[in-house]
Amino acid sequence: MDTEELLQRVRKIEIKTRGLSNNIFAGEYHSAFKGRGMAFSEVREYQYGDDVRDIDWNVTARLGKPYIKVFEEERELTVILMVDVSGSLDFGTVRQTKREMVTEIAATLAFSAIQNNDKIGVIFFSDKIEKFIPPKKGRKHILFIIRELLDFQPESDRTDIGMAIEYMTNAIKKRCTVFMLSDFFDHKDYSNQLTIANRRHDVVALQVYDQRMAELPDIGIIKMRDAETGGEVFVDTSSRAVRRAHHEWWVRYQGYMKDVFTKSNVDCASVRTDEDYVKALMGLFRRRS
Predict the structure, then answer these.
(1) Phi/psi at 210 (nearest 5 deg)?
(2) Which end of the chain has a smaller Cβ tally under 10 Å, C or N?
């Protein structure tokens, strides 16, 4: 992708996702992802009914009458986007690839974060940590993140979710909100790493998948390639038994994945590449509010 084309795509995504974050997600995001707690704001004179435990005894002694400390919600968050860049994300059969949808969702979350004065960083992962962009604020930083989302070329096609979660847990010391964007196709168990991570941070899982992963179309014999291993196999999609077996595998896998999230106490949402992700995100935000 040349520089001019990249800048055009960055601008197009900025216009769409910034509009969504401004017009739709502003209040929902704020409600769903609270700050770290209460922070000292100012002192004011004691009024009848105030909690005596909030009295500032130093100011009270100095001024000769009771003053209390006033606290307000400490809003600023650190948001980390964990973005799967493995080979399976390049798959898509209808409107867009999984990677393209992940890019839009990540950009929307990024603009929602800076609108609430939050810092945002990104971890790109495959079966290794491909790149870590430390958390910062500001539109310039968001545009840099979008450019990387659009143009980043991973070194590996494979996936290791557990490794990526463990890296994030060790690298980010201060409590943060973590959005994991992936199709979550990983043959290795990552439940232990996820449970540990969610005790320290607030982890949210966003699964992006293609409808053909849930239902094979009846289009005869096709050659299917594993985007992560490169292995190829011919599949007779005209066979009802083959289509049924594939669907049953999908249902089992989805059940396993959601069971892992439930046991780890991680909120999750799934969205298909031919669906509107706005509905899925709004539903997730409202469940958390």
Answers:
(1) -100, 145
(2) N
Q: Please report where in the chains the tokens 């949808």 appear, as a residue.
A: 101
Contact between residue 217 and residue 189 where contact means Cβ atoms under 8 Å apart: no
24 burial (CB, 10 Å; 0-12 / 13-18 / 19+) is: middle
pLDDT tens, position by position, 246-286 = 788 889 989 999 999 999 999 999 998 888 888 888 888 88
Please give the distance of CA 67 from its chain centroid, rounded to a whole number: 43
- The first and second tokens of residue 61, run together, are 């002694």
Residue for token pair 């860049």: 85
Residue 174, burial from CB neighbour count under 10 angstroms (0-12, 13-18, 19+) = exposed
The answer to whether 73 touches 40, Cβ cutoff 8 Å, is: no
- Tell me how far CA of residue 88 lies from CA of 44, 84, 103, 159, in angstroms: 58, 9, 15, 9
Query: What's the pTM?
Result: 0.78
